[in-house]
Amino acid sequence: MDSAASLLEAYRRDRRRLLGFLLSAAGGHGRAVDLSRVDLDAVSADYALDCVASGAQFDASEATRRYFHDRRYPIMTNSPSRNSYFLLSRPEASGSPPKKVAPDIGLVPPAEEKSSRTRKHSDSSRVAIDIPEASNGIKDVSLADMSPQQVKEMDILSLGLPRLSTELSDDDLRETAYEVLLASLFVSGKMNFSEEKREKKPKFLKGLRSKTERSNAAPQMENYYTHHLDLVRVQMEISESMDILAKRALRHIGSKIVQGQLDVPCISLQLLSSVGKFDFPTERLRVQWQRRQANVLEELLLFSASLEYSMSETLRIVLSKLKNTEDWVVSVPDGRIEVLTIIERYNTRLSAAPNKFGLEGETYHWARSYHFNSRLYEKLLCSVFDILEDGQLVEEADEILETVKLTWPILGITQKLHDVLYAWVLFHKFAQTGEILLLKQTYLQIQKLQLHNDVRETEMYINSFVCSVESCGSNGALNLVDSAILKINMCCRRQLERYHLYFSQGNYSIFESMLNLLLLSAAILTDDEEEAMVRFLTCPVVLL
Q1: How far apart are CA 395 and CA 386, in angstroms?
Q2: What digits encode the pLDDT tens for the residues 278-308?
Q3: 475 phi and psi, to 5 degrees?
Q4: Which residues pair with 467 in a beta bridge?
Q5: C-alpha pair distances (Å), 484 with each of 370, 468, 487
Q6: Which of 113-117, 339-343, 365-369 is the least confident region?
Q7: Alpha carbon of 243 to those of 43, 231, 293: distances in Å?
Q8: What is the pTM of this model?
């Protein structure tokens, strides 16, 4: 497994280098392409080669579109016989090939198209999810049949959190979430970082077997948290070089704690003050990394914080200097220190503000930046899903969750928020894969919400996590917990109201589990006895 992982990382690294060389040398019309903001992992190699061969201008958006489009189909080879190809599915689980010749392709009447789709879902153990298209119409398709880019663009199963004001991508959030996890391990004293070279042991993906598999081999760990952190790193697709860079910069993060508190701006400032230009393997990585840190600080200090006008204008100026990656490199060290000192001073001033809810360990950014912190925590929770077997939980999911919980003091997560966010990511993954185990786990997580009896201050804090919900043609607002449960309820209702399209004797267990989840979520929501909640439950289903 270690050799397979090494080959995979080597392949990805070589692919990026080769694409970077080709496009930097001549991306079209003999002009070099600026790759500082191009994600080479999501660039179609065929498209890049076509541009180089034909001399056409390289278009990053078209390259990304081609990449996700090609992923939906098997990889073909250009053999003369035209009968060689790679399979996306497992042939041993698909049965024998059909004996009859495929019928000619012709125009399919709408009624026949619907009938064929019904048969498809009846024979499948995966349940489709209704997806709102660009128009006001509704189309029944399976999320598993869509490209990741399509799923993202259509904003399926959105919690309704306030949108980010900066250009932070999903990859940016994922990498920032991993840095927060590292900082929490260092501050809690659960992990120490040593740059001494040690003998490499086969540990990549060890323990990442699905729970359906059994193994008598137990991993031998030097350190409990170090081992599980490495599993999380692999799951979150963080490279070893960036992992070492972040660990080296954050190992003394405890000295940056302000008034006994640690928040995400403190972590970004520590990274910026500790990492130099030559710590990165490539200039492109440095530029992307610095822009990400600048966008994080801008999101949390400029757009999420409540600042006086003069204070915000000064902060806007210094952040613009940080975002100018070229000037930042050539500027004198004293100038960079001054910029970071000014930003740190503003964050310290915000941290000194009185706590809004009087909770133990509460920081300024708990409530002000809940939309950002919740997204980071979702990324961390998603590390329990096996990257090699879509829809499967890794064997050490429980241990990973215990490690992720160390971020609660930084991100402002409570037990109730953890339970509902974990239920949310489980259900979201079920919607993509149709794995019944995830549906049952979602039920168990939501069941835990009935056991919570939070004090008044904690309830007020959770109620400040406002999410938008659309129902009956109008927009409403609910707290994050109610929003997640309502969205799950709405999705289950839509499937069950059209049960004849999605369920049969072959997948009755999914029908039963979804019905149980619908009844449980409805019971929790109606316990609130709020007029708005009753209105949401009785209105036609509309997913954001």
Answers
A1: 9
A2: 888 888 899 999 999 999 999 999 887 766 5
A3: -95, 140
A4: 478
A5: 15, 11, 5
A6: 113-117
A7: 24, 12, 16
A8: 0.69
